[in-house]
Design goal:
homodimer; 595 residues; alpha/beta; Rossmann fold; 3 domains; 15% strand; 1-deoxy-D-xylulose-5-phosphate synthase activity (chains A, B); Transketo_C/PFOR_II (chains A, B)
Chain lengths: 595, 595
């Protein structure tokens, strides 16, 4: 077996043409074995086995610099740069992250996980090389799906501006996570259909020397192409046609499902079921939106290349013109949403928390400054969301809640969530974001009739004394458990508050707490710094009541265990109760009186 | 005079061809008269007089929807839509803002001030029209300078994707604020040089029907072109060559200086001097950076199309390859900076606070997550900065200071600032942002020898008791004045603190305050919510000390008077002193003892 002998790219370079093909086959087999058992980005990596082997054969990493866009297609690169065991030995599957990671290897330049950054990073790396008067190749690999992001275009422009060696590989498998959207994809199709000869070549229009390769899964042709441009003294763009999921027929046939996923059967291509489908916050959202759209042609859902966030392929088809996928282009998604709202549509932008942060300026300047009634549904905003350091959902409260005009809502159960969503869609005064709850669907069975136009009105779900506990969104449940423990074990009936609004304070309520409370505790499912709790602490800073804010530390937590992280942050029922007891004045008489 | 009779676009439509030319001349004369006296975006508006008259002649606003990118070129549009008096009568010059503004007129759809948003907004407006089955033209006007922004590219892509009527006018005056940078500009030049016939047309590559007009300051030709595409059932792009500053020779000759500015002489084209040049934080920055660059080829300054932030045209030329203008592309500026830092260069990105917010994800994901030692110089971050609602510099502390790894520094004088900048450039461990001070240069005459690698170490500049006042950056001076007033008038020697770091707390110092202080006051030059002070309030929430945070309200304050806004926010020496006195325990004996 060649693969096990590859400890560095050096060993790749020593193989003959025939041996390289054997290596390709072994690498693909190991990849399939691992992703079928362990999950991961299957399709993108299957498509670039040949390309990655050829890159390491021709170029000289780490002297030559490789930068993979998003880097979810870097598995083969990892196999060939000293990390093969993480793909051949199940005991070591967890040794590597799913993205490039400088802590793993000098062959990985950056921690990456968001799209469309590779060209700008490469432009910086190349410019630094030039300033230092050094001499090597800078190679960026970007998928066609990532080309819809404006940052990729800015990168292309500036690579031409700098004008020295940078080799851009466009890995064109004619697929984003789902199908592609936007004018650029018509150009890529024209170029594929004409073997690179079509008129009005997008890349040439920006000034690139352009080469097309139809057989992007042919290692010999790839090597020939790379050798022909290696050490160029100017920017070169290689448009390479690959097949997403290549070498595994189920992945080739179903490219959307085989973008990424959990374990699957190599025999049938079926993902291993995790039991029967149950209603979730996602399905509840989809149900409400589909119903709304059926009854009102002005309701429209906008999405930025992550359609699985809400709808299946069939649902999207059925929604027709009321579902808009703008490609991976979060800035456009937000600004288009603002335009839709201005002209009387009722737009809902569904986005993962980690990708929403790409649109800070558009949320502030285009939506919020203009007071436009668009709705942002923020998914996976939780310590319990994605847990890779490049995909965290814990920064959205500091980011969104301090933007003027924007109403940020944090529901605690299904009824509340759907009532907020319905209100947001039908009102015309406020930009609204909703922090979609994480975890199992919680149903109260009682419709929520709150008037959400009464901004910042919190709900007191239990009136008590001494301690008031504010449980934000997902962590209302934790607040409830703390209150119960205080009551049953310590005879303290605490005040329990569901704030619902996290972009402003219920000042009247907070003022009233001073009278008969020693302590206010806030619990939120995200980072502590800049969060909701700190606005409470500030407001109560000169009042006669203490405040304790709970949240996780301001860090890029990586592949963490959520319960462990929460416990480290002091967020267990027991620890919170103990800290409350240490900060309230509880005489035995008080306790007896309550009991 | 025709101009005075134009109360709405209706009156424009009634003019003959010859009368239109008279209107053009009158409008240009009024424009010149106003901007020469009052200041404003002179060059951009001089260039679009004919285009704007022709737009209102051919199209039917507000039924047809006009969206101006950045909207600093909307003065003529304002003249023709009921706001002529704001340009013809000096007493009414202040009636209108410098950007489109829906509160002024139904002909203005959006409040805009950042670039590259118009196409995405137009895409949303057009899509809403389609959902409602309505029928009219959506017309977006975007300058060539704004085309470097990735959002513009995302907009172009998605206009093609939607596929219905949208008329994109590219107003190509071959100039951004300064010269253009990036591959797209070579394409625009090729198209201009070939009367629109060049191969590899960027716009056609994305799928646009494309028309070129060389004589973009000829009202008759403009009308002909607009009439030919009006009511098209598909996207159309009009590439129109105009002359920035047209009709005022000094502006035509010096297009960078005549992008925008204060009053100038119509006779000589000289800006009215505001006295002899004195050293400023800008000139001090430029001096240090020029010196650094001369001595180290790895030092490089990155800028996103706003070069006047630091350097003159001559200085930029002299800096050669160590000065990089990426065009108006803030995301790229940040991500390229990350790439530069990774490969051993010493990059400094100089940016205005209001535009920095376009790069939240790039700061977080590309620079901070990767621990890269790039430096961000944040200019105009102050209540005393730009005061238009679309250009505020008061949101950067909430935005930046809660991003992990990033060290955000707030100097209070020249020596501190330059020491921080020098440290940041030469260190290799941290991403660093520095809040460049606003206002007059303050010099202590004593070199700052602080070791800024000791993160979060505050400086206690006066040790006292009862009240501790933390003055952040620009507002350290205010804290000092409050301390002096407390001392001289009320016999209280307060503790005075210069935190220097605003992305983390000096916990040891804060802990020590509990012993002999009743109150901690924070003063910061920005929005209260999410700011530095709130992290202090949170940290001290369960300590035996009260906290009062000062900052301005979370609002898009518009064309405000800074001293008035600060006073409304309670930030005058007198008001702060009174509030401190009400919250500390001051016996007469205490006061006498100190006096």
């Amino acid at each position: 077996m060649f693969l096990e002998k590859i400890k560095s790219p050096k060993e790749v370079k020593e193989l003959s043409g025939q041996e390289l093909q054997v290596l390709v086959d072994e690498a693909r087999a190991a990849l399939l074995e691992k992703v079928s058992q362990y999950g991961g980005h299957n399709g993108p990596n299957l498509g670039v086995v040949e390309m990655t082997v050829a890159m390491h054969y021709v170029f000289d990493s780490p002297k030559d610099k490789f930068i993979f866009d998003v880097s979810h297609q870097s598995y083969i690169h990892k196999m060939l740069t000293g990390r093969g065991q993480a793909f051949t030995d199940p005991d070591h599957y967890e040794d590597v992250s799913g993205y490039t990671n400088p802590q793993e290897s000098e062959h990985d330049l950056f921690t990456i996980g968001h799209t469309s950054t590779s060209l700008s990073l490469a432009n910086g790396v190349a410019k630094a090389r030039d300033l230092k008067a050094e001499d090597y190749n800078v190679v960026a690999v970007i998928g066609d799906g990532s080309l819809s992001g404006g940052l990729a275009y800015e990168g292309l422009n500036n690579i031409i501006e700098v004008g020295t060696n940078t080799i851009v590989i466009v890995n064109d498998n004619d697929q984003s996570i789902a199908e592609n959207h936007g004018g650029i994809y018509k150009n890529l199709k024209n170029l594929r259909d004409s073997n690179g000869q079509a008129e009005d070549n997008f890349f040439k229009s920006l000034g690139f020397e352009y080469h097309y390769l139809e057989e992007g899964n042919n290692v010999e042709q790839l090597i020939g192409l790379f050798e022909s441009v290696k050490d160029a003294d100017h920017p070169v763009l290689l448009h390479i046609h690959t097949i997403k999921g290549f070498g595994f027929k189920y992945a080739e046939e179903n490219r959307e499902d085989f973008h990424a996923g959990g374990p699957f059967s190599l025999e049938t291509g079926e993902y291993l079921s995790s039991g029967p489908a149950v209603p979730t916050y996602t399905s509840a959202t989809a149900d409400l939106l589909i119903d709304k759209m059926a009854n009102d042609p002005k309701v429209v859902v906008v999405n930025g290349g992550t359609p699985m966030i809400l709808f299946s392929q069939e649902q999207r088809k059925a929604l027709g013109k009321q579902y808009v996928d703008v490609g991976i282009a979060e800035e456009h998604a937000m600004t288009m949403t603002a335009g839709l709202a201005k002209n009387g549509a009722k737009p809902i932008w569904a986005v993962f928390s980690t990708f929403m942060q790409r649109s800070y300026d558009q949320i502030s300047h285009d939506l919020a400054l203009n007071h436009l009634p668009g709705t942002i549904l923020v998914f996976m905003a939780s310590v319990n969301g994605m847990n890779d350091e490049s995909h965290l959902g814990i920064f959205d409260i500091p980011m969104l809640s301090h933007i003027p005009n924007l109403v940020y809502l944090a529901p605690t159960n299904k009824e509340e969530y759907l009532a907020m969503l319905d209100w947001s869609i039908e009102q015309s005064d406020h930009p609204v974001a909703i922090r979609v709850p994480m975890g199992e669907l919680k149903e109260t069975g009682v419709a929520d009739t709150t008037d959400y136009s009464q901004r910042y009105k919190n709900e007191v779900t239990q009136k008590g004394a001494k301690a008031a506990i504010i449980g934000v969104g997902n962590f209302y449940q934790l607040a409830l458990e703390v209150a119960e423990e205080l009551s049953t074990k310590h005879g303290i009936k605490a005040t329990l508050i569901n704030p619902k609004f996290i972009s402003g304070l219920d000042q009247e309520l907070l003022d009233s707490l001073e009278n008969n409370h020693d302590l206010v505790v806030t619990l939120e499912d995200g980072v502590l710094e800049g969060g909701y709790g700190q606005t409470v602490a500030s407001y109560l800073g000169d009042k006669d009541v203490k405040v304790i804010n709970y949240g996780v530390d301001k860090l890029f937590h990586d592949r963490y265990d959520a319960p462990e992280l929460l416990s480290q942050s002091g967020m267990s029922v027991d620890k919170i109760v103990q800290r409350i007891l240490a900060n309230v004045d509880v005489s035995l008489a008080d306790q007896l009186a309550i009991i």
